[in-house]
Structures
1.
Amino acid sequence: MTQRWTETQVAALAPDASSLAAARKLAGKWSGAGWCETALWGLCKGSGSNPYQTIVDLTGPAFRCSCPSRKFPCKHALSLLMIWSAGIVDESAEAADFAAEWIGKRVEKAAAPPRPPRTEKAATTEQRQSRIAAGLEELDTWLTDQIRTGLAQTDRSYAAFEAVAKRMVDAQAPGVADALRRLPAAVVVRANWPEVVLGRFAWLHLLIAAHAKLEALPTPLAAAVRSHIGYPTTADSVHAEPTVGDRWLTVGMRTVEEDRLHTRRTWLYGLRTGRWALILDHSFGSPAFPAHVPPLGLAAEFGLHFYPVAAPLRALLDPARGDAAPAVAELPATAGSGTIAATLTEFATATAADPWLESWPVLLRDVVPTPRGEDWVLAESDGTALALAPLAQPWRLLALSGGHPVTVFGVWTGRRLEVVAVLSAGEFHDVGPAADETASAVTATPEAASIALLGTARGAGTPPGLAHQVAAAVAALPDRDPAERLLETTAMEMAWTRGGCLPDHVEVPGGAAAADPRPVLPRPAADRLALLIESGPEFLPEWFAAARPYDYRAPDRLVGHLLEFAAADSELREAALRSAGTRGRWLADLIPRWHDLVRRDTAQSEPGDETWRLGLPPERLEWLTALRHRDPAAAREALDEAWPRESGAPKAALLGVLSAGLGPGDEQLLERGLDDRRGDVRRTSARLLARLLGSAFAGRMAGRAAVWLKSADDGPGQGPELIVEIPETLDAATVRDGFTDSTTEFGYRWNGQPDRTATRLRKLIAALPTSYWTDSLGPPQRAVTARIEDRFRQPLFDGWMDAALAQGDTDWGHALFTAGMPSNLAILRRRELFALILAGDQLHHLLGLGTSWLSELESLLPAVAHPWPPELARHLLRLFEEQARTAARRRGAPGTYASAHRSLLRTAALHLPPECAGEVTALAGRCEADDWAEAIGRLSHDLHQRSAMLEELK
């Protein structure tokens, strides 16, 4: 049965980002969609009267759409795949007529007998060989000229290499042209570029020499030479080779892109024959590769036809293929190379047959990633090791290993191992691309490169320090031009060192990651988490909250991704680290940039005083915070004892730790903070003292309020009045409590000038307990109606808001919210007040808002607890439908477009109950305005995604 694809798999098919963005907007325009076995179809509403017919053959994948788009796949096919992956498309017993007709034609075409193989005329073959020979002779002359005059003197620009490569294309030697085109990148980014360039030149010189004697070479070696040069090999001729039938296991995949041409390499291992195979697939524009090979870690029964070369590796598949199924358990103990010694022997055998071979697949068992200086090696238990090629994300390999022996698949180049996949927990996992894409398997020695850099016209053509076997072979060569001699010597030396490479020996350290006893995250939920980290972080808060009661640990393959996410997101950091668990702490300790993420297990003993006395500022802050949660008094005493020695910016942060569990015992230390030289420390002290309602600071503020603020009541119906009489000159005690001469802190102005008095009024009001106003102004609902000079209305309300929010006073929050804000500046804080009032009052207010108040809804809804109540969800959907109907009736009218409410729709996607997904899907189908149909369709898609992610955790 066909499995639904993930959204990541669908996104990988997009020809460009704009097609993917356009596809997401079509979620609400589908009708008649369904899928059956390997067929997926649907009708998408377009600009014309007839909907577009879209069909996807999931086995290809192959696409057909009646739209005029020239992109492949088009946005309609991508959108159809997206809603299918989200579970919105229902399965049908049979395909729709238009889909069945197209799928049937594809099946008939596949079943048609193959065409007879094409044979090339002898004259054409001879003409091509002559043209290639002439081009290679010119190239050999150019190579020796570069070495003779010196690489330092030659033109090493992209244009220079490209000119020679184009000549090779004209000579019908595309393989040689590709080798030349790879050199400019190495010249630009590599310090040892002379070694890389000389190595590639020697590789080409040897290939040219072999081509000159092509007729005398053994048939397999001659075929290898033709393959490296780029002679065409027809698929028919390869299919004529004997079929090698087996149960082939996919052990590695690697996709690269160059000039919009995507190339996928798939390595297979025959479970019965023990043979390696490499399948190459190409796709222009997008990585839409055929699904003829099993996914990573799966195996299927089919036949392969190997290219007839000296070291057969590349192959073509037979069309018929059995069902793919997990087969890692079937991997025999003797599979692949197994050991480092066997790896080197196999590679030596392969390069002896084909000297131009650049890599060979290997499967190493029971090896441990081990540091060696700044580099890494794979080591066996006795210390035998192979150098590792740097990975772009080395933590993937380390996370999967955890310091324990693992089975690794990669390609050995004769100098280093490029890891492709790791077998962990019974599955193969990709470890990502290499960090250095310009690295070359064929690299000359520094001694030979030094000669080539200066040029053989200035020195000898034989480098020193050659192995005696290579030196003897060089001595047997006939006298030649020194440049040719250097190229031939380098070619022999590279063949010797690569084929005769000896393993390294290192000391295997201990300290593997400890076991995490928690249950592992279910596979669907783990796949969802990986997708959310990569492309959907807005849903992660809900995902982590839903996952917390289960206390799952993330699978090893996701540990590094979680740490990378935790380093960038402080709000969800603790949740991500909790999921990463024991292995996450082990891995963070290995990667320098993640050291600060390491958290102590709550079961461990308390950290020592060394961290507090000698640690870095972040470590000391973390230590004090943890101690404050365990023992508030001990944390206060530690800070009080160290206070005379504290200095700099961290001082205010340390004092801010007292906000957790703030109590009367903290008052003395906070009073000391009022005398500090740093303004941020004084402000932190005043802010925290204002929360201590019975403190001396609060008493001093109440005393000032009694003098500076006078209340009067003119009688029934008039309401209270507040008169402000703040002096211009302040005494030292008042300045100590935070009243400075600053006029820029809040930006109040009066008559075009900064208003110092307004600033002082706000500070006073914010520092008073909200209960202070009961005697003078009455309850909150009456107090907020108090009359005051226009100049002071805004700072009065701002101060009340500061106090209500700091003290969590629900009554004052409700009163201030109901009274409204006296300026646009304060409107930005209405959401904070709205979050403070009771849930019932919130719901009552929101249900009273109609379509003309959508901006008010947009502002306040994020403050409502998640998920929203059903009544609120239904109310909002009704408003959306009313607005969509208005947009359809008054097309083009300002304010009716869905884009005008983009933020509200996005908030709805995050907070609507997932159970509303079906209702939203139906609403999308009823929308006549295209932009609203698209917007509600996206909302439906997001709700289905949220519903699926919550279900996967169960």
Note: Residues 122-149 form the longest helix (28 residues).
2.
Amino acid sequence: MSDNVCVGRELRAGAGSIKAVLLGTAAAGMIFWAAPAVAQQADEASASASTESTVSAEEAARLKRLGVVTVSARRRDERLQDAPVAITAFSGETMADYNITDVTDLATQVPSMVVGRASSGSSASVFLRGVGSTSLSAGFDQSVSFNLDGLPMSRGREILFSQFDVKRVEVLKGPQALFYGKNTTGGLISVITNGPGDEFEAGGKVGYGFEAEDFYTEGYVSGPISDTFGARLAVRYRDAEGAFENSAAPVYPSPLGFDRRNQGKRGGAETFAGRLTLDWQPTDIFNLELKLGTTQNEDGGATDYLERVCGAGRTTPASANGIPPSPNADCRINGRTDVSSLPKEVANAGYRYARDGRTYSDLESNTAILTAELLLDRLDITSITSHYDFVQTDLNNVSGEAYPASFSQLADFEQVSQELRFQTKFDGPLNFLFGGFYSDADFVFNTDAYIFPVPPDPVTGTFVTFSRDNGFEGQTSSLFVEGTWNFSDQWELSAGARWSREERDSYQESRAANIAFAAAFPGGLRLDDDFEDENVSPQVTLRYQPSTNVSYYVAYKEGFKSGGFNISQTLTPAANKAAGEFDSETAKGFEAGVRSILFDGQLALNATIYDYLYEDLQVQRFDPITVGQVVDNAGELSTTGIEFDFNWLPRSVDGLTIRGAFAYNDADYSDYIGQCYAGQTIAEGCDQVLVGTAFTSQDYNGRTPPKAPETAGRIGATYEFPVFGGWNASVGGDLTYSSEYNYTDTLRPDSIQDAHTKFDATIALSTPDDRWRIALIGRNLTDELIATSANDVPFSGGVGTGTTTGLVSDLSAIVQNPKEIFLEVSTRF
């Protein structure tokens, strides 16, 4: 990619055993459920057979509380209880009740889901059932990807997007090959936003978070403009100071004598997001919908969420290259850490994207989604044409105020895609869904790093250690087909496959920016890599529905995620080209489930069991000595587990809802000899692959992958009751639990997130017509600081790897938000 293109884009940026017991127990549970289900068929049929569109508003609200929502996991509208898919779905109302406004907030709603920010690569860490993609690599497609109103997204930065005016969110677990454009292996988060209805409506809310001085407001206006044309406009604005403390000194001298400045509170952000939806339906059989969206988010970057964890149980931060740690640094995850800006003298001397030296992240993204539907007598035709782009620049400090280990990044992405889908509607038992998908993507990912305090380069005057320019151009083509055979009133068999072809042309060039590092960072060579791969991912599902409100299913699924070239590695001599290549990731396995509404419509109870094998799982780790990114493919990862959720609305206690969810996940590696963690000794397991006089690898076989809690769950209740003057009150609370997990890619033994419990609560008052609502919303009231990922602090150890005398590095861990309490007022009319 030419420098002119890069400059142009910068300008645009400005605008066996446990498993057997588990499966046996689950199977027995399904048989047990069948007895009451069959006995209550008549009652159930009258209680809930109607869809949301044919019942009263009161009953529709009850069904939503029961979790009976419409989903489109199979690209057709159906009740969640009818969908033979492992899915957790939330309505927009549920998200509003919990003040869920971004993807990281969803983690508390989905047991076994671990989500967090990251300071490099994809800027995201999203894991489901222990399957996800390391945040280090900007070149990986995400194993858990996103879909917005039919637009596929797989870069990871989508976790920064504001979630507002949402109709529902569907979290699909396991491989998703058939129905969503880009094939994924770990799961998919599908967001469906609201569109204009048949009547005028408008509303808004304003809120304030006391812990982070967090002000936000959002609103919408929607309705018909003519008999055939409707529009909806929704916007959201947020301005927060942040809830984390910065322990850095007001002014702290850098190793070169320049002053570094404290940046105040951490975790703040200013965000604006908007979406315009235009809907045109000139006839009963044709509909055209255009959704235009924008997001602008500026904050302190992932640096704001870093907490230092000292290596090997040390209680004092380690020195880095002989520079002692700041007295303001500590070794605990406690909401305090020392973050300071770069000296202006360093930031202004040829340091790309460094601005004035203060750490930051600035993201601007735009989406355009044009959906056309033609509804014929025997065939529905759907076309989704989309454009997606983002430009993000950031500056991160990953070592605190004493040592200047920092890097800046430009991530510039543009994607156009087209999906064409055909759904037959024959009168007979056999129907088909088929179509094709194509996308073209262009990604620029440039980095500057300042990791050693040395005088400026005598020619250029820069303090930058090395610079790296990378990127890729990629094309995805796929064809898919599924046949559905309803061979009786109760049995349905679906079978299909997606053929995918991925092509990716990657490039990379790194160079020593300062002459002092010419030997350490030789670079100067441009590497070009061409990758292409094809895959066929089949899927077979058998569903048995003995009554309207009970269904069972069993499915075999496969998934695929493209390989490519590691554009996040640091050094680029010719010998590193092979080391930068990684293979495609695949998944295959079985799942089975039951979806039920029992006891005269009082209880919705769903369960899923699964057993999947992932091959060539794409992994990557950070080397704090070379400041390099090492990419690899793990041999195999197996995941086996059970998940269930319920919603209970006892008719004997009007207004009471009791809900819960639980997940057990047994995940482990096999056939995987991978990198040691930096400083790991032979006695600590770094005893594989001898290179020279030291070992470089460890045996991961039988070990649990990172971010894979064995058990997780949620239990909660809400009670609604009348109070005074016709107003209604609502009181609710939820406990969320997760067992321990390791949060580093190399499974360092000193990086364990302990088991923890969070408590969320809401107290609300609303008018009878719900026109006005006042709510006090508390999240994470137990004030748990949860680590989701970590990388080694550069040059704070990490020496002697694979020997008998290794010294491990300190860690910079990313943590989730602390306690938050919001007061919110909303209205609609």
Note: Residues 17-39 form the longest helix (23 residues).
3.
Amino acid sequence: MSTSVTPARTAADTGALVRSLADIRLVDADQAGGKGANLGELIAAGLPVPPGFVVTCDAYRSSMRAGGVDAELAALHHEALGSVDDPARLDELCRRMRDEVRSGNLTADLRDAVVAAYRALGPHVVVAVRSSAAGEDGRDASFAGMNRSITNITGEQDLIDAVAGCWASLFTPRVLTYRAARGFTEAPEMAVVVQRMISADRAGVAFTADPSTGNRDHLVIEAAFGQGEVVVSGKVQPDTYVVDKATGRVVDTRIGVKPFKIVRGDDGRDAVVELDADHVNAQVLSETDLRRITELAIAAERHYRDPQDIEWAIEGEAVWLVQARPITTLGPAPTATPDEHPARDGVLLNGLPAAPGTASGRVRVLQTPADGSLLRDGEVLVAPMTNPDWLPTIRRAAAVVTESGGMTCHAAIVARELSVPCVVGARSATTLLQTGAMVTVDGTHGQIRDTGPAAPVAVVTAAAGGSVSSATPVTATRIYVNLAMPDTAETAAAADVDGVGLLRAEMMLTDALGGRHPRALMARGEQSTLITAMTDAIGRIAAAFAPRPVIYRATDFRSNEFRNLSGGEDFEPVEHNPMIGYRGCYRYVKEPDLFALELTALTEVRDRYPNVHLMVPFVRTRWELDECLHLVDDSRLGRQHGLHRWIMAEVPSVVHWLPTYIGMGIDGVSIGSNDLTQLMLGVDRDSETCAEVFDETDAAVLDAIGRIVSTARRFHIPSSLCGQAPSTNPAFAEHLVRMGITSISVNPDAVARTRRAVAAAEQRLLLDAVRYQADNPDGDQPK
């Protein structure tokens, strides 16, 4: 095995259109691109690499020149580099450049050379066709996942089309944004690697130094079942193994959640296969697998004499290396063990430390790259997963948090290159972190911490200039919005919403009190200050939405949150488990004078805006609610005509007591899915240790929700659910629609997405009914 980078074997072949990987070395990178040159170098080092060939950069240049599009491409590319901050213009320029590339196409000579090289690999061989741009996979820039790779290609015409597709991928917004960020201004060129496709049982990535700490004594391996795309794209949370390079000992293992794998399907295309429960959380690699991958990774590092980022795949018993490149973001090796320890206080979520550094900002929860325009500069991007299409958004973010992915996925690599702190694999991040909340992302330790109460933040919607389809679907299920402060009311009200399903009192109260505990203010005789401030805040929201309903949820601070207010230690008990302690309805009964201030403020608002209604949270027992309703009825609010009295269904006991509550005068029920889930499953939703147990779609939780909705329907009162799950999980939305829920309330940024999901569910339900009636013309309607 060679211990140094090997020179090219045949310099005379540098102008060839197509070259065997076995004849390429690192010095040929200007013709073979970074990926092709590195694969040839691995072969020269005696390491296992699938056979294949490279369509060179000369082939690309000659085809564009022969097609008469080279000059136009260069001009458009120059203009595009200056338009990276104008997404619409950049998208248009990239589309035009891709059209130019396709019109240039492969020359006849090149088509013949590619077909001949393909046939030489064997009859009807399945290949992977992968971009290898000039400058890609080098020491200064990885282009990780930027350009296109196409797997499971069979047949000559499909191969030709795939090569052209790789060329066209030079000109996408994500690539141009990356090139601009990295200072690449010359017109790009593309080589294409064609290799025998490995039918992978297991696949993943190996970093020969820890990318999160810079520790060169450790090797990090990430693995998943099936093809490696799920690891490098961040589609799943892979297994992560940290190995001591000197001893080969595995010093840390984290088993990821891998709900599916990608394999070659019966039709020859990539197929997504859902994994059974035994495999979702199963360990991917055996000790033997880990040892062989470690040996090959160290051998590659020794050959290059630099830390390497390596992609590998296991087919049967054989381990293959399918890519290698220098780690572009590795800092100097640590000279001593750092004294710094991760913080313990205020941790909201834990994940994997993917890109070091710390940044604070307001959360912006987004589901797809198409929503990227909603992120404001300096906000924290929180997403289910990120791929390179997110690059223009990542570039503007203060930090990035994802629910899936590992430390070696493409998005993590790009975040490190752009010096954007990043935490991946933070499960439930899009539901536990709310848009507008202030957080600190610690990419060094893999933590997301609470920064404190958020300042008011505007929510960008279609009415505020967002780009959405004008054809908004109509739904029978009402779509409400969750709000916490008046500053976003006008913008939210201009969107396609049916009202406010959850108006949280806590932030308005904190703002009204100037951060003081309400009893500290009452001790100074300043009750009127609180009432006036709350009246103004609630009134502004009510005015924006009138005549649509606004459901005001009375204050539901927990005792530990009240203690954090100025003077709170003088009035609040110390509880070991405040989540199920002194809060909600019980607190109003025990402190009726404080509850009376809220009722007074609500009364004054309803004098002008009768669309406002009251919701009582965290109702445990019949007697609590009975006393609380007496307090309401004895106030001027209770004597106002048309007041609706809602309760939050958060405590499982409501499943039993709801008919009784309705008989006591409750005329609306809103399911708080977060609290209901934690109490049904016995898991603290604030616990990072037990985060994987928290599941709103657990059968027990769905059964409780179904029984609550069924009771509401039986007694003809409205039912709602407050939570983000319907906007992120279409199956959950369909469950709610089939149950017959009357409304769903979500954050402003999820309104359009939720309405689309609900509309689709309603259409499926209607179609099912039509089909049932057609099949059973004399039968009853399906339930």
Note: The domain at 11-196 is CATH 3.30.1490.20 (Dna Ligase; domain 1).
